[in-house]
Amino acid sequence: MAFSHYFVGIPGKKCGAIIFTAEELSNCRDIATMQLCANKLDKKDFFGKSDPFLVFYRSNEDGTFTICHKTEVIKNTLNPVWQPFTIPVRALCNGDYDRTVKVDVYDWDRDGSHDFIGEFTTSYRELSRGQNQFNVYEVLNPKKKGKKKKYINSGTVSTATMSFSLTQLNFTVAIDFTASNGNPSQPTSLHYMSPYQMNAYAMALKAVGEIIQDYDSDKLFPAYGFGAKLPPDGKISHAFPLSGDNENPNCVGIEGVLEAYFQSLRTVQLYGPTNFAPVINKVANCAAEITDGSQYFVLLMITDGVISDMVQTKEAVVNAASLPLSIIIVGVGPAEFDAMEELDGDEVRVSSRGRFAERDIVQFVPFRDYIDRSGNQVLSMARLAKDVLAEIPDQLLSFMKSGGVEPRPALSSSPLPELHRHI
To answer: Segment Disordered: which positions (predicted)?
Structure first.
């Protein structure tokens, strides 16, 4: 889809136009890691060899090309080996494995007038085959080819390594059962169980959960509550399973989580305080057992108020920042959420006892910002899900990089797997 915007200037004179092109993004969340090398590239520098770099272009639906990646420059060589780089497959080909990927080879010049060495085309499917005799590409310069009868090529580029990340997502839910939410039997309560519409907790859970469940293949979601007195002895718990089974906290699908949530409202007593650290540590302990990149954990916490154990929570976040874990916090109700903003380390990285978190792993959004004044609940919840999940791919990638996790190689003898369940 393309449309133009024309500049308005001096009457009678054309001032040019900007053409906007849009394409719907695929739901592919695969992340590819590749490394390329070249052999016998053309010599472009008078006093040396060449300083080659690669420019990758994604092909668009209208036949045009858009730059999606540039490699680093390798100085004074005709046989460069570029560093491995990681790129979302969606950025490379929008999830279409057979879509053309064009690669230009340039010789870097200090003044920016880089010399064109040549080009070749490939596809993600071809690249995924990794290092083999079929993944050697001739670098061709059309001008040279037209002028020189004996012209063969301007060198070759081959795939040194190729791998892609297949990371299983594990989704966990934690719901605030503190008394500040109000009596669930009263319409003023944030936990009110109305027969006509979902409360804020259920809406937030459904909005985020229904999107994220597509990336969790087994659809079994551990779900916990915190800040309640449990029957029969009234013991306060900050990480009790909504299923009621301490041995098995899993619920089947988001509908199963909602059912367990409503059942818990009927059986536990809302109490307090609002402690985050116990449930964060519980999920972090699970994440600590699998740090090879094969699994990544996402904890959704829905709460209404001020954190009571802020010191312990910050320590838990700092400890968890080195693990394959992201934390989404949705704040419901009219309270001020200054503490949540502090945990969301976009501006200042969370710290505890002088130690800063290795990564930003917390994303906070206030639910009230997504209440659509027109009453379009579906639209509001779609915006909420989009915003709270926006940082997950980058956070997953930052874990891979900070931990030096190498993605597992693709199997050249097998077709590419369906990746829509992986992030």
So the answer is: 404-423
- Give the pLDDT of residue 422: 34
Question: What distance in Å separates the CA atoms of residue 36 and residue 53, rounded to the nearest whole number?
Answer: 10
Q: What pLDDT is recorded for position 419?
A: 28
322 and 257 inside one domain:
yes
Supply the pTM of this predicted model.
0.64
Number of neighbouring beta carbons within 10 Å of residue 96? 18
Greater confidence (169 vs 220) lies with 220
Residues 195 and 296 in one domain: yes
My answer on whether 137 and 205 are in the same domain is: no
Q: What is the pLDDT of residues 147-206, one digit of tens each?
A: 888 899 999 999 877 665 556 789 999 999 999 999 999 999 999 988 888 898 998 898
Kindly state whether residues 304 and 319 are assigned to the same domain.
yes
Are 336 and 199 contained in the same domain? Answer: yes
- At 85, give phi and psi (nearest 5°): -135, 155
Note the pLDDT tens digit of each residue in 34-86.
Answer: 889 999 999 987 778 999 999 999 999 888 999 999 999 999 999 999 988 88
The pLDDT tens digits of the residues spanning 310-356 come to 999 999 999 999 999 999 999 998 888 888 888 987 778 899 999 99
For residues 329 and 204, is the Cβ–Cβ distance under 8 A?
no
Domain ranges, residue 305: 168-402
Instruction: Confirm if 95 and 109 have CB atoms less than 8 A apart.
Output: no
Judge if 196 and 329 occupy the same domain. yes
The answer to whether residue 420 is domain-embedded is no
